[in-house]
Amino acid sequence: MTLWLAGFAVLLVKLVLVLAVVMAGAAYLVLVERKLLGRFQLRYGPNRVGPFGLLQPLADGAKMLLKEDLVPAGADKFLFFIIPAVLPMTTLLAFAVVPFGTELTIMGQKVPMVISDLDVGVLFVLALSSVGVYSLALGGWASNSKYSLLGAVRGVGQMISYELPLGLTLVPVVMMAKSMSLVDIVNAQASMPFIVYQPVAFILFFVSALAEIKRTPFDLAEAENELQAGYHMEYSGMRFALFFLGEYVNMIFLGALAAVFFMGGWSGPVLPPIVWMLIKTSIMPILLIWIRATLPRLRPDQLMRLCWVWLAPLALVNILATGAVMLLAG
């Protein structure tokens, strides 16, 4: 009984730690994006609230809490109220299978640095990422706005299309690791990260992930100059903040997946494993911000052609090539 209580307490501590780190990371990723975009555009970015603008996320959060919460006439109030929470909740839930380091020994007991090491971790991640589509589809529909509905239709088509190449890029990783557990996948890269063997899969994963979270140049679901922010244009206050939070938590999550699937996870010299994992996780969000400041938005037909003419076929060819090489290598 005592051992069970201790295990339950450790699980609660891990849940709170992961939740706190991810939420704080999302808040300060917004600040990092504003700072970097400022530098890219030859200005300073936020620098008034606290030293170097470090308290700006707190000021932004207070502003969102104090804003008037508006509900459009004719909106489906039940869906309008609950849908903004779907994306951040599903993404935070998916962090349960992401390993952050090797096992720790505390009071003689080994404590894994993952909340739950599922044997079907890859399927768990893909399933939860699919649920995120509902936040966009129902959020746009429930607003009773033509702009929101058009943005939702665009976004749903985009996310469903790009989930195919995103999932296919993970098949060679699973084939090489011979497991769907994210811990086993990291352990399989102990000698060499999979990005060395699978550069094509990594590039396809990166482009598909960029489209999956609807960031520039794939931000057609928002398209400010056409749709006035698209599916979330009618949301204000904390409900808009939840959409915002979901986007940035998703960026961190995709960075963690890129680190686990292609960069060797927590593996690295000199520094502690958790530090390596945080460094590798931060690479993808920084690249996403850089791309936002660099590339223009694609047209819808260009976006779909890129997926169905190039990414999906290339991902299938990469699976066949990986299988052939593994067969020849015995």
How would you summarize what this structure contains?
By secondary structure, this protein is mainly α. It is 68% helix and 2% strand.
Description:
The protein has 330 residues and is mainly α. 68% of the residues lie in helices and 2% in strands. The protein has helices at residues 2-40, 56-66, 77-82, 86-94, 121-142, 146-177, 182-187, 194-197, 199-212, 224-227, 237-262, 273-292, 300-329, and strands spanning 104-106, 109-111. It has a two-stranded antiparallel sheet with strand order 1-2. Helix 4 (86-94) packs antiparallel against helix 5 and helix 9 packs antiparallel against helix 13. The chain is globular and about 60 Å long. The chain starts with a helix and ends with a helix.
Euclidean distance between termini CA atoms:
48 Å
Average pLDDT for all residues: 86
Number of strand segments: 2
Number of helices: 13
Structural class: mainly alpha
Instruction: Please compute the radius of gyration using only Cα atoms.
Output: 21 Å
Low-confidence stretches: none
Strand residues, percent? under 5%
Listing every helix as H and every strand as E from the N terminus to the C terminus, the arrangement reads: HHHHEEHHHHHHHHH
Largest sheet: 2 strands, antiparallel
Shape: globular
Fraction in helix? 55-70%
Query: Looking across the biggest beta sheet, what order are the strands in?
Result: 1-2
